[in-house]
Amino acid sequence: MRALGSAPLFSHGFRPFFLAGAGFAAVAVAVWGLWLYGRLPGAQPIGGMLAWHRHEMPFGFAAAIIAGFLLTAVPNWTGRPGLHGWPLIGLVLTWLLARLAWMMPLPAELLIATQVPFLPLLAWFIGRDLVMSGKRDNYPVLLVIALLAGCQLMTLAGMATDNVDLQRRGVLAALWLVGALMSVIGGRVIPFFIQRGLNRLPAPVTNPWPTRILLVGGLLAALSFAAGFNDVPNPWLSGLFLLIGGLHLLRLWRWHDRGIWGVPLLWSLYLAYAWLVVAALAMSLWHAGLMSQQSLASHSLAVGGVGGLILAMIARVGLGHTGRALTASKPIVLGFALLMIAGVCRVLLVPFSTSGLGLSALLWCAAFVLFLLSYTRILLRPRV
């Protein structure tokens, strides 16, 4: 047992959670795709497959990757030891139990009880270190995790009461909270990765207000979903999403360097971040009455933005924090491309052909399987 606690896999949070999150991403979307096309007969989870899919993508997949990143980043921010050994194993098992509970014949109350602890525990572990080190500039990250836990409670309450509208609002609010968190973290690390990856001079200090506005705008967007303000088009919200999209576009313009197109670990981040622009501007068009399907905006964010940024980020962090050379292998470069195409299929092909869903799911799964093939040995072994 002592050997398990000291294994390289449990030395840092990113190792088990990146592997678990990537594996779950492939399995969960494969199950969802098979069910959509009638290839998965049999009993459904409590609440049905749609409820399971809605809940598990933000609160299972995305939450695992967020946990892995923050449990690794917060020790760097604070100088305090990171979660490792048996406390980390306990947190991983809490996450895993919540995933497996959907497949068990549990009463609805017990199923819901297994889903609740993970995000509050994560908030406790990172919040304790942030508060004790006085890192107040990182408190917004803690706020987003707490709000994600609130969105999960809303989603679970909708499932417990068969309130599909409440369930949907909780999930969409969580999705845009994840987008807000990625805008904060992406604003910190993407320019740094570009500077380091291309050996450029340090970028000049930029005005912090666009980043602050993006965070507040993302929180307002999530709140508008939670409150049901996005159920029908609203011109005021069109302006909010237009502002968010414009600020994301400004960031991309400031970050652009022709050298990134020769470095897969950089163009993958850049193109994935561009999906945040697409999602925000699509929501603006929907609220302005110029686009018919709001779900296209949501899936722009979910597949291209969240999925793309996660794959690009865990590929870069997985190499950097294990001491490997920052060079993407051919399989993971293919994975980057497949995930970008998956986003295009989900957004542009689905309105014209039902095969778009299946193709998008297949490409998504292939991308994360390629990550697992490329990184499992790296994440299981000690740092070089």
Automatic annotation (TrEMBL):
Membrane spanning stretches: 16-37, 57-74, 110-127, 139-159, 171-190, 211-229, 235-253, 265-288, 300-319, 331-349, 361-380
Classification via InterPro entries: NnrS (IPR010266)
Keywords assigned by UniProt, alphabetized: Membrane, Transmembrane, Transmembrane helix
KW Membrane (keyword) present: yes
A Pfam family it matches: NnrS
Keyword Transmembrane helix: yes
Top-level lineage group: Bacteria
Protein's recorded name: NnrS family protein
Organism, scientific name: Pseudomonas gregormendelii
